[in-house]
Design a protein that fits this description.
This protein has 128 residues and is an all-alpha fold. 70% of the residues lie in helices and 0% in strands. It is built from 8 helices and no strands.
């Protein structure tokens, strides 16, 4: 039977960089059930959705705004995607950027859970 970590990675396989999967699997395997449930609150970006938005509205920087790259989004908006050049380049880069952002979000949550020392700072008691 597959562990929760394996099931999570099967569901979100496309959301993270391939070279980081073993690290993620190792860290997820150490979580308690309560901590694992907390991970589902993470806001992860679907790389395919970001790519579609980049193709359709990338010249206006919408893809970068969605990823939280506000400065780059404003830059793309003001230059109309760098006169189309930046827009074309971003179509190749934005999926990897989404995966990197998702990895950073997940690692941030895992580091938070580690800092709680195995507990969740009362999270479970407050939300039962």
């Amino acid at each position: 039977m597959a562990s929760k970590a394996d099931m999570y990675l099967m569901s979100y396989n496309e959301y993270f960089p391939a070279e980081r999967m073993l690290e993620i699997q190792d860290r997820l395997g150490k979580l308690t059930d309560e901590q694992f449930n907390y991970l589902h609150t993470a806001k992860l970006h679907n790389p395919t959705t970001i790519l579609i938005m980049s193709i359709i509205l990338g010249e206006l920087g919408v893809d970068r705004f969605m990823l939280g790259d506000i400065g780059l989004g404003i830059g793309k908006l003001l230059t109309l995607g760098g006169c189309g050049i930046w827009w074309i380049i971003d179509m190749f880069l934005v999926r990897d950027r989404a995966r990197t952002k998702n990895y950073e979000t997940l690692i941030g949550m895992l580091n938070y859970l580690d800092a709680q020392g195995g507990g969740m700072g009362g999270y479970g008691q407050q939300h039962q």
